[in-house]
Amino acid sequence: MLRRQHMATSRFRIFSIFLLGLLGVSYAVGSPRTADAARPYIVEARQCAGGALCAARAVRAAGGAVIMELPIINGVAARLSDAEIARLRRARGIDIFADSSIATQSSSTPLSPTTPDIYQRAMAGVNDLAALGYNGTGVTIAIVDSGILQATGHSYLADDMNGANRLVAQYDAIENVLVDANHPCPSFPCVNDDWGHGSHVTGLIASSNTSDSYLNGQPQGIAPMARLINVKAFDGSGTGSYTTVLTALNWLLANRTTYGRIGVVNLSFGAKPQSYYWNDPIDRAVMKLWQAGIVVVASAGNFGPAAQTIAVPGNTPYVITVGAMTDNFTPDDPSDDGVTSFSSAGPTIEGFVKPDVVAPGGHLAAFMDKEYQALAARYPQYGSVDRNLFVMSGTSQAAAVTTGVVALMLEANPALTPDEIKCRLIGSAIAALGKSRKAAYSVFQQGAGLINAYDAVYGTAWNCANQGLNIAADLAGTAHYGGPARQNPGTGTFYVVNAYGTPLADGYSWNQSFAKGQGYLWNEGYLWNEGYLWNEGYLWNEGYLWNEGYLWNESYPWNQNTLAPASTPTSMESWNAQE
Question: What predicted TM-score, i.e. pTM, was given to this entire model?
Answer without folding.
Answer: 0.88
